[in-house]
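Check out a protein:
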Amino acid sequence: MTAISPEKLLGYLKQNERVFVSGSAGEPIALTEAIVTAADSTANCHFFCSFIPGVNKRNLSTTAGRQMSVYFMQPSFAKHDTGNVHFAPMTYSQIQQSLTMPEAIDTVLLQVAPPDEHGQCSLGPQGEFLPSVLTNCSKILAVINPNVPSLPNSPSIAFDKISAYTESDTPLPVYDAGSENAVSQAIADNIASLIPNGATLQCGLGKVPNQLMGALSQHQQLRIHSGMVSDSLLRLIDNDVLEPGSPIISTVALGSEEFYKQLLDIPQLEICGVERSHNAALLAAAPKLHAVNSAIEVDLCGQVNAEMLNGKSMSGPGGLPDFAAAARAQADGLSIIALPAADPSGEHSRLVASLATGTSITIPQYNVDAVVTEYGIAMLRGVDRKTRAKRMIDIAHPNHRERLEQAFFS
């Protein structure tokens, strides 16, 4: 078998096939770029994509008859949607279950490292749904890319299991948390005060998780069991705060080009499938699980909206509900939601009296233990509704506290 062009590789797709396309760091860009410009070869195919906002932006449904199902909505999809983009709001564990049902997927498009001496092609920084999906599909079309690091503790696929392939040296998708700021640092410092030594930590992406890694520099014996790890992981390693010999478990490593180059120097890193990273039984056994995630807004009872802005879907549940529920279930764990108290202007509060009608509730109030802003920590576990509201108002932006109190208590 020899390499062929991306366009010829897409010719292996048949009418009405159900095709899974990996997102995050594993997006096979050589193929997704070709799909956007392709016509007849992919007409009437249905693409199921684990694309995440801000990283995987290509809309694969630009040709009439072509369908695209996504688990995170984003503006670039909605803007060009002609009715062919389908948003399926599910948690990661639910997505994994859906994609591995019999005949759910016919073909997988993926990106792998060149085969090693044993004929195995590493998935590199991307586990996600691939390990499970690959066992059930009948056709595997691959991009072999030397930029994919061949990680010893990452899933792999035998080269002879690949149906056809193309070659590309396209850089991997990257993620940048952006520049640090004082508000995010105050939030990170508040969160750090909640994390005990010996805790198992899960963090989402963003400025606050990025700065939290630095705020934990004096901690000891921390463990990582997360959906994603990024450049900030290197801070924990450099500060020597991780439990020696403990695996760093994640389903995706997503960050800068330099971060990808350093992954081979982290022998304890284990990239795995969602069936392990988001497994409820394994999370229940993780010592002192502390799940730290961000939100768009939170109401005074602790209901979390991490998906919608001004009535429009901007993201999806992702792994947030899986980890929040697992952390909340532990007596010595903690489900933490972190966000700035208001928008940068201070005009719009991100703590609201109640969520607007029709707003998605990403996490119900009973799976939130603590809400953290730059103004402090509202501990919600085990307290009544009025106490919750009072504590939430105390950490709201000062410009909005009186209005929130009136809206809730009047």
